[in-house]
Amino acid sequence: MNRISALLLFAVTISACSEKKGSERDFQAIKQGMTKEEVIKLVGKPEKETNLVMVEMWKYPVDHKVIVINSDTVVQVLDDRPVDSLKHE
């Protein structure tokens, strides 16, 4: 039974490490025209998706980023920080 528990713990740990989080995400590498799959490989799946009439918005609140997608390709990467916080950088 201990061996099964150890293997399960190992599998969960490996899975958690493989998911890109926070500072590991490279939003600067995302370029206009990239596919959704390319974005997911770079920064992982979005925490929230909003579907509008012509575009999708993928939100990454921890990183303060929004990726705008149209026809399965990136249109723009936006900074989603409040305007006041941008003044102090």
From TrEMBL:
Superkingdom of the organism of origin: Bacteria
Name of the protein in question: Lipoprotein SmpA/OmlA domain-containing protein
Species of provenance: Solitalea longa
